[in-house]
């Protein structure tokens, strides 16, 4: 006997059942309710078939009987059929009601899933189109400029070379206003002064004020 590759995909197993039992398993259109205990008949018929296992058959059968197409076919007046398509009894009311309830719940669940997916897609699209908000930098009020107090008028007199000495505080005329400092050294008429700013300058005596 030739070894045959076992089918593991549920869709492939269903396709195999459509082909092997066309009067029982209907591939397209309205289906018919299956005989109660059909799985046992199916397992016996395919006992020598190495293509499918009992576990895979059970999964495929569950997929077939839980489809909307099958549940719609479980209705008043419909006859159950066996593997050969032979009628084998009418449906009980409780089975019809159970099938209708299962169908309704499945459809509502699928609808809610579609709405949630559409809402998420819409939100994602809206977010991608929405320009990023630019946060305007906070404007801080500039600190008020301190009002400069007018320097008190100081009456300075020109220095006399003979009266100058080291470490004496003097004022040096640099630009418009005199700058305070300390005499560091005196060489003839050149006086070296270290200003309060730290800068050391050499100036003529006529530029020094007291």
From TrEMBL:
SMART domains named among the record's database cross-references: ProQ
Annotated gene: proQ
Location in or out of the cell: Cytoplasm
Family matches, as InterPro entries: ProQ (IPR023529), ProQ/FinO (IPR016103), ProQ/FinO_sf (IPR036442), ProQ_C (IPR035236)
Family, similarity comment: Belongs to the ProQ family.
Role, per record: RNA chaperone with significant RNA binding, RNA strand exchange and RNA duplexing activities.
Residue intervals of the ProQ/FinO domain: 5-119
Region annotation Disordered: where it falls in the sequence: 119-149
Biased composition (Basic residues): 129-142
Name the record gives this protein: RNA chaperone ProQ
PANTHER family linked: RNA CHAPERONE PROQ (PTHR38106:SF1)
Superkingdom, taxonomy of origin: Bacteria
SUPFAM superfamilies found in the cross-reference section: FinO-like
Entry keywords, A to Z: Chaperone, Cytoplasm, RNA-binding
Entries under Pfam families matching the protein: ProQ, ProQ_C
